[in-house]
């Protein structure tokens, strides 16, 4: 799907590129949602865009994510997306500026998440943009808010798990798996946030960043630095949580080993006695006793009870 934001405030949606009548002077922004690789060639030709940065999302070099040419500015980065399961998924976002138009390429999942956040925080219906730079800075601000939102989500999950850990004494492997998932999500956010920060730092130094926009970019950089601190707090909390659960699991295992030790010792003495009388030697005086059987049963019971009393005194149970 393609959304075009016109300078008169209208928003038109198209399903194919051929439907669009491209008049640059009338357009603020064009958003391509769930585009395909086959669409890129047509898009590049129709809108005269340089799309060499596409497909380089995994490159480490910042030059693959920030390209500032004479007539076009290209930004591309990955952003964690909410997923049906507990693990986030990385999605690419491409933002290009050319002919005073903001071109945005993103997936429908990220589009839905950003729209939901935008309508929750801003009065978007009554928000009007006078220039393309205002719209671009607004998009940057929404993305920063999105990072804050997902970091807050991870923080809440960690706190909830911490409270459950303090109350519970029973833990399973799935608890440690859940911690690993939270750590992975936090790691995805940190990597994406770091990449976005580097892009904004370069944008802040760019000649295209005019005085009226540089202050806004610096504000977003400062906000991202605060979010980065919260990410580090999350890692510290996860380390504490992992250590706490492992300690409780070890205590539970030690308790089980104690129980097994008690049972083993209590059974070993009666087993020894039974083994002696099971030898069936001919000269065993107890075999001829009238109360020999009763005597041995009493000895077995006493030999079982004495270790129990001993461990009870030692407060093993």
UniProtKB/TrEMBL annotation:
InterPro entries: CorA_cytoplasmic_dom, CorA_TM1_TM2, MgTranspt_CorA/ZnTranspt_ZntB. The keyword Transport applies. It is found in: Cell membrane. GO terms for molecular function: cobalt ion binding; cobalt ion transmembrane transporter activity; magnesium ion binding; magnesium ion transmembrane transporter activity. It catalyses: Mg(2+)(in) = Mg(2+)(out). Keywords: Cell membrane, Ion transport, Magnesium, Membrane, Transmembrane, Transmembrane helix, Transport. GO terms for cellular component: plasma membrane. It is a multi-pass membrane protein. The chain crosses the membrane at residues 256-279, 291-311. Belongs to the CorA metal ion transporter (MIT) (TC 1.A.35) family. Mediates influx of magnesium ions. Alternates between open and closed states. Activated by low cytoplasmic Mg(2+) levels. Inactive when cytoplasmic Mg(2+) levels are high. This is Magnesium transporter.
């Amino acid at each position: 799907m393609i959304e075009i934001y016109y300078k008169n405030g209208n928003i038109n949606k198209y399903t194919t590129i051929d439907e669009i009548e491209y008049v640059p002077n009338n357009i603020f922004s064009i958003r391509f949602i769930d585009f395909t690789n086959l669409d890129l060639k047509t898009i590049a030709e129709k809108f005269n865009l340089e799309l060499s940065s596409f497909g380089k999302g995994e490159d480490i070099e910042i030059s693959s994510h920030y390209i500032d040419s004479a007539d076009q500015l290209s930004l591309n980065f990955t952003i964690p997306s909410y997923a049906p399961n507990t693990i986030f998924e990385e999605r690419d976002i491409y933002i290009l500026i050319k002919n005073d138009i903001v071109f945005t390429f993103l997936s429908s999942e990220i589009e839905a998440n950003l729209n939901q956040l935008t309508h929750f925080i801003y009065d978007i219906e009554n928000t009007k943009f006078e220039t393309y730079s205002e719209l671009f800075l607004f998009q940057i601000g929404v993305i920063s808010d999105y990072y804050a939102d997902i970091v807050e989500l991870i923080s809440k999950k960690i706190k909830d798990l911490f409270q459950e850990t303090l109350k519970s004494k029973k833990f399973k492997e799935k608890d440690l798996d859940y911690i690993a998932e939270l750590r992975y999500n936090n790691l995805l956010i940190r990597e994406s946030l770091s990449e976005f920060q580097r892009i904004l730092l370069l944008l802040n130094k760019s000649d295209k960043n005019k005085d009226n926009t540089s202050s806004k970019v610096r504000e977003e950089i400062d906000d991202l630095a605060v979010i980065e601190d919260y990410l580090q707090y999350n890692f510290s909390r996860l380390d504490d949580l992992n250590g706490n659960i492992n300690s409780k699991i070890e205590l539970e295992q030690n308790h089980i080993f104690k129980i097994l030790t008690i049972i083993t010792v209590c059974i070993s003495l009666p087993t020894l006695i039974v083994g002696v009388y099971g030898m069936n030697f001919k000269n065993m005086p107890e075999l001829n006793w009238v109360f020999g059987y009763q005597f041995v049963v009493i000895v077995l019971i006493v030999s079982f009870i004495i270790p129990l009393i001993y461990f009870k005194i030692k407060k093993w149970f």
